[in-house]
Design a protein that fits this description.
The structure holds two protein chains of two kinds. By secondary structure, chain A is an all-beta fold. In chain A, 0% of the residues lie in helices and 53% in strands. In chain A, the strands form two sheets. In chain A, strands 2, 4, 5, 6, 9, 10 and 11 form a seven-stranded mixed sheet that branches. In chain A, strands 1-3-8-7 form a four-stranded antiparallel sheet, with no helix packed on it. The relative contact order of chain A is 0.33. Chain B is mainly β. Chain B has strands at residues 3-5, 10-14, 19-21, 24-26, 31-38, 44-50, 56-58, 64-68, 73-78, 87-95, 103-104, 108-113. In chain B, the strands form three sheets. In chain B, strands 2, 5, 6, 10, 11 and 12 form a six-stranded mixed sheet that branches. In chain B, a hairpin with a 7-residue loop joins strand 10 (87-95) and strand 11. The mean pLDDT of chain B is 91. The chains are: A mainly beta, B mainly beta.
Chain lengths: 113, 114
């Protein structure tokens, strides 16, 4: 069974631009969560989607948004990029919100110049 | 709400020596506990989990963790580390009713010294 895939793996953008990251969960998994990982803050929860609905949201500004499609694939968007948005963005999938184990993708490394 | 504290941001240890990575949690409800490992340039992988039953849980690569409810701890141990254990380790907690998201600690970077 294929694991969680994230595209692209690496991305370089400049301040003010916007970016869209993609995540394909494990087949059959319907819940997708997004995290931002930085050396100073560790893993910070962005949001969780289940059945195309946002189920939980972390403490991030409205520039960070996401969505989930009917095939459970998910995208997250960051608009008006800031230098501080440079991070590893991780996607994780689980069977459903009651699934306690999350399976992580390799992440997308975003660098904002 | 839940919180997780990993008391050490970095732990250096000599190869073949024992190691303990500490994790304490806070929660007003019963929780599931996890340790995840992140090898360089990779995503997180589940190392082991405590759901119920025996308070001592083991992984396939020699790590073990013990759930201590009275001390609200879930420390990770290995009796003899190998260079391949170099990674960052994250303790995590989620409420059993899964009404809230999983919470991760800030991570402990394990450095294996030759």
């Amino acid at each position: 069974k294929a694991g969680v895939t994230q595209t692209p793996r690496y991305l370089i953008k400049t301040r003010g631009q916007q970016v869209t990251l993609s995540c394909s969960p494990i087949s059959g998994h319907r819940s997708v969560s997004w995290y931002q990982q930085t050396p100073g803050q560790g893993l910070q929860f962005l949001f969780e989607y289940f059945s195309e609905t946002q189920r939980n949201k972390g403490n991030f500004p409205g520039r960070f948004s996401g969505r989930q499609f009917s095939n459970s694939r998910s995208e997250m968007n960051v608009s008006t990029l800031e230098l501080g948005d440079s991070a590893l963005y991780l996607c994780a999938s689980s069977l459903d919100p009651s699934g306690y184990e999350q399976f992580f993708g390799p992440g997308t490394r975003l660098t904002v110049l | 709400a839940q919180s997780v504290t990993q008391l050490d941001s970095q732990v250096p240890v000599f190869e073949e020596a024992p190691v303990e990575l500490r994790c304490n949690y806070s929660s007003s409800v019963s929780v599931y506990l996890f340790w995840y490992v992140q090898y360089p340039n990779q995503g997180l992988q589940l190392l082991l989990k405590y759901l119920s039953g025996s308070t001592l849980v083991e992984s396939i690569n020699g790590f073990e963790a013990e759930f201590n409810k009275s001390q609200t701890s879930f420390h990770l141990r290995k009796p003899s580390v190998h260079i391949s254990d170099t990674a960052e380790y994250f303790c995590a907690v989620t409420p059993m009713n899964r009404d809230d998201k999983i919470i991760f600690g800030k991570g402990t970077r394990l450095h294996i010294l030759p």
